Amino acid sequence: MRYYTGVFCILEYIDMANGYGRAVAGSGTGAMRLGFGAATFALVVGSAVYGEVVHGYGLLRKGDPDFTPFGRARIGFSALAALLLYFALRPVIQILPVRIEDRNRVMVGIVLAAAFLLAVAAAVLFVPTALNDYVREMQPLGMATEVLLIAAIGSLLMAAWGARGKREGRLLAIFPPALVLTGMAGVVFLILMEEMSWGQHWIGWATPELFSRNVQNETNLHNFYTYQFEAIYYTSAIFCFIVMPWCWLRGAGAFSAQVEPYLPSRFFALMALPVASLMYEAWNIVPYQVWYFLGLMIGVDIARRIQPARLRAAAFGLVIVYALTMLVFLFGGEAMVDGYELSEVREFYIAFLFLAFGGMLMERFSGKTPVFRQTKAHQED
Questions:
Q1: Is residue 320 part of a domain?
Q2: Do residues 322 and 30 lie in contact, with contact meaning Cβ atoms separated by under 8 Å?
Q3: 153: domain range?
Q4: pLDDT (tens digit, 9 = 90+) per residue, 173-227?
Q5: Can you name the residues that pair with 96 across neighbouring β-strands?
Q6: Distance separating alpha carbons of residues 260 and 252, to the nearest angstrom
Q7: Could you give the CA distance from residue 319 to residue 276 in angstroms, rounded to a whole number?
Q8: For residue 194, what is the enclosing H or E element?
Q9: Nearest to 121 by CA among 109, 106, 136, 131
Q10: Is residue 318 part of a domain?
Q11: Strands 306-307 and 96-97, bridge-based pairing
Q12: Cα angle vertex 274, ends 379, 314, to 5°?
């Protein structure tokens, strides 16, 4: 818990000393932000290389969480790297008011994320071996993941249909909204097909010779290099659903304005927080540790700024659940059968976020919600 306490104290000290958004990292020059980013990169690379050379840890090596003196030191360096990255990306905002008509929706997202984390933590504590039976291929959780991805594709295609006549919001001043949204649906379709091994799980054909080197003997690409593909997938989800919604500059011009119509609100980042958690055997991977601590800091940052008070209390409650359930995963996960169960649960939650994101875009581009409503309402200070 001392890592969590240190994070809270450092953030509070900087705000008290300098004023939010005017601390060294909050509203500093671009060069200073780049400096914090470079320091983050150096810490992560240094920690990973030292672990590889001195202790034989591969960058993406999985295993039981390491709490040896070296493992604890590396956790500290990861927390520091996350803090520097937080400074490099932190937006200059004072408060985050939630519109009256959106408050129930935001509350539902916060409660859902907290309830999901608590439910998974309860499973790890009380039925850790049973969890394995639900996460394997063609078992309830895996099938539910595929269903959610199918629904997400449908929602993104419906958003594209609703945007077919719109000409504003061209990405890179070239691609119209309908094409961008169709492209998003295509990306989720590829994820679905890889998840289903392009239908092999359902139809049951023999794995072709071309895929003989596949780790799980399946007709897909990601299991040729499972850990690498997982790192790309999880990092992309954390970046798109947590980091970008939190740090992206609202109400600006040029490229920022072109991206904003496709971006979730900052409150979406709270609902997405479980994606930066839900790990046991992957905890020793330095970038995942950094993402976890950055998610903690983002949660605290949004919780301190969100209004009204009942949403602030709920958001802080979620942050506490996020921290405590991670301790359950790390110290109780050894009772699970294989150790990868939480990764499968994380993929289920990512699929849910794809669906929630698609529903948001469907509403935004259907004409029910002005496409640029968020831009006008959340101008940066």
A1: yes
A2: no
A3: 100-377
A4: 788 899 999 999 999 999 999 888 888 778 877 888 888 788 887 888 888 888 8
A5: 306
A6: 9
A7: 12
A8: helix 177-195
A9: 131
A10: yes
A11: parallel
A12: 60
Q: Which helix (H) or strand (E) holds 306?
A: strand 306-307
| Residue corresponding to tokens 């958003």 | 159
Backbone angles phi, psi at 269, to 5 degrees: -60, -35
Span 288-304, pLDDT tens digits? 999 999 999 999 999 99
Give the pair of three-digit tokens for residue 197. 């091994």
How many structural domains comprise the chain? 1
In a domain, 275, yes or no: yes
Closest to 78 in 3D by CA, of 332, 276, 302: 276
Write the CA distances from 122 to 116, 118, 187, 319, 326, integer angstroms: 10, 6, 33, 17, 12
180 in a domain, yes or no?
yes
Q: What whole-number distance in Å separates Cα of residue 89 and Cα of residue 269? A: 14
Contact 20, 300 (CB under 8 A): no
Q: Pick the residue with more confidence: 89 or 202?
A: 89
Is the backbone of residue 197 left (phi > 0), alpha (psi -120 to 50) or beta? left
Question: What is the rounded distance in angstroms from the CA atom of residue 103 to the CA atom of residue 240?
Answer: 23
Phi, psi of 160, rounded to the nearest 5 degrees = -65, -40
